[in-house]
Amino acid sequence: MEAFLNQLPIGLSIGAVLLLIALGLTFTFGQMGVINMAHGEFIMAGAYTAYLLQDWAGRQAVIVALPVAFVVAGLMGLALERAAIRHFYGRPLDTLLLTWGVSLVLQQLARDLFGAPNVQVQAPQWLQGGLGIMPYNRMFILALAVGSVVAVWAYMNRTGQGRRMQAVMQNRRLASTSGIDTGRVDMRTFFIGSGLAGIAGVALTLIGPVGPALGTYYIVDAFLVVVAGGLGQLRGAVIAAAGLGLLNSYAEFWTDASLAKVIVFAVIVAFLQFRPQGLFVVRSRALT
Amino acid sequence: MRNSAWRIALPLAALVVALGACGPGSSSSQQAAGGGEDGIKVGILHSLSGTMAISEVTVKDAELLAIEEINAAGGVLGKKLIPVVEDGASDWPTFAEKATKLIAQDKVATVFGGWTSASRKAMLPVFERRKALLWYPVQYEGLESSPYIFYTGATTNQQIVPGLEYLKEQGKKKLFLVGSDYVFPRTANKVIKAYAAANGMEVIGEEYTPLGHTEYSTLVNKVVQAKPDAVFNTLNGDSNVAFFKQLKSAGVTAEDMPTMSVSVAEEEVKGIGVDNIAGHLVAWNYYQTTDTPANTKFVQAFKAKYGADKVTSDPMEAGYNAVYLWAEAVKKAGTVEVEAVKKAAGGIALERPEGLVTIDGENQHMYKTARIGVVQPDGLIKEVWNSGEPIKPDPYLKGYPWAAGLASG
């Protein structure tokens, strides 16, 4: 019974990880309809940012890295958007191919810069240990996920920039004729979406490997959350992440890790049969 | 929307770059005219990209070092060795494809390569059909003996069985098995269960996770609830990092629940973080700290070539040995012709960094000394037990009554 109850916080913490990695995608994929396969590599960039900052910040690197990784990954995203993706708006398949290529290039770049083996990021002393089955580092990730969601929500609904972003997503041409510079909004959206991936990358150094292949382990899960939650829907992503986390946790508890993956995929496929648009739907005239 | 040329050019460019990223070593052989006159071409086939690159790149480095040393000492049969490096990309069909390319197109004399059993199983039919030679440098699950493969890593009775014997000696009775979901861990665990049944030990849990899995909180919860005396870990690749980080943060220490790992060596310890794995056990045939004259030389040469912060590990040493053992067999045979080399190889004995290594001519495995080690706070591994002498390779465990029936299953 104890083991059974333990799975509840475990499920929620898996959900928190899923939410963190997917949050950036609710911007770039959800809001803009850009299938960015390099999102995983922005996560990786965040993790390596924490690694590099260790020289300077020691064991507190993980904390210091949060804002730095946001900017680093954000700028990478911005560069990608300006240099390439904007030429492909409205052409999702080409974008997919392009960003897939970019993702491979970035992986190889990381391999050349940092070497193929994993590197070590030391967790701060105060994140070691835990309460029962719930380690402090998992609680930290949970808190970070909640904090990020609140910040994103406030930005989208309480600031002029956020409202303009929503306006562009819902009706690009009308927004444009109303005097909104849609190009600027696109840049900003991509910056924030990619930056959030950087933050996720920093958090992942606490629990997983830090290496060139890091992004590939999370990219599919991130897309699953966004698709199941409904494109561009913050609350959809939150509920989908929590639901998938719990499903994952209990499915693995009752069966094993390999079968749990199958179960999760099967449930999502079945779910999308009934609700092809995900949990929540918003009518939009997005780029696609 | 104005520049349509860009819209075509960019995906194409991305694709080309992507393909380039997949095979950085595609044409890295130096120009060897005809291959016969100026030198002897040898193939090196490891994953230089993808999830296995973390481990395999280092083996490639060790093999290149051996080739360089042999060339500096005058080469083999008066000819220099010319390495042709290919990337298996952590993808098993790619291994078979690249092996075919090395044999048919580059006409290499032999290939050094592979890490996962899946990649070896994919390459095996290629080498058997084309009667070419593969040197496989990693410990594996045994139950195989191809006439066209030399196995320079440990087979089960030189690594897993000694690991179990050590745990038994330490009074560990209840085992929990954790492994990646593919051929090596599943076969290894069959052996472990047979051993446990015959030796009064009990396997109280057995869990597999997909390769590249990074979420271990549920599995750690299961392990903690089952309260085993020890965990036998056959996870491979990056999963080890996630597993040990999450085991540590769940408050499990090496004192109350040691793990015995068979795929974690010095290189992996660095990525996992010493904090997370110090005190846990590993089973291999070689550590960077192994005290032999040949090892002092090997460690020095490796650090000089690749950097002072680099470590050496068992699979690297086995890859390094493979090149020397093949070169010795070629010298003895007087030719690179495969059948002659195979015939000459049996009985060759060399002092290697791990100690004396002898080729068993019958099953083409090596006599190797088993060593159990503990991960130290400095990231190196200290030997706490060894088998005293090289153990005769027994891939089908014929010499162990409890293993009867495993080979057929």
Please tell me about this protein's structure.
- The complex is a heterodimer of chains A (288) and B (409).
- Chain A has helices spanning 2-31, 39-57, 61-83, 92-114, 136-158, 160-170, 172-177, 182-204, 214-229, 234-254, 257-274; strands spanning 130-131, 134-135.
- With 288 residues, chain A is an all-alpha fold.
- Chain A has a single domain, classed as ABC transporter involved in vitamin B12 uptake, BtuC (Orthogonal Bundle), CATH 1.10.3470.
- In chain A, β1 (130-131) and β2 (134-135) form a beta hairpin.
- Chain A starts with a helix and ends in a 14-residue tail after the last helix.
- In chain B, α3 packs parallel to α4 (117-130), α5 (156-169) packs across α6 (183-198) and α12 crosses α13 (338-345).
- In chain B, the strands form 3 sheets. Chain B has a 7-stranded mixed beta sheet with strand order 7-6-8-9-10-14-15, with helices on both faces. In chain B, strands 2-1-3-4-5 form a 5-stranded parallel beta sheet, sandwiched between helices. In chain B, strands 11-12-13 form a 3-stranded antiparallel beta sheet, with no helix packed on it.
- Chain B has 2 domains: 3-154 and 295-367, Rossmann fold (3-Layer(aba) Sandwich); 157-289 and 370-408, Response regulator (Rossmann fold), CATH 3.40.50.2300.
- Chain B is α/β, with parallel strands linked by helices.
- At the A-B interface, α1, α4, α5, α9 and α10 of A face α1, α2, β7, α7 and α8 of B.
- Chain A: This is Urea transport system permease protein.
- Chain A: Belongs to the binding-protein-dependent transport system permease family. LivHM subfamily.
- Chain A: It is found in: Cell membrane.
Condensed summary:
Chain A is an all-alpha fold and 288 residues long.
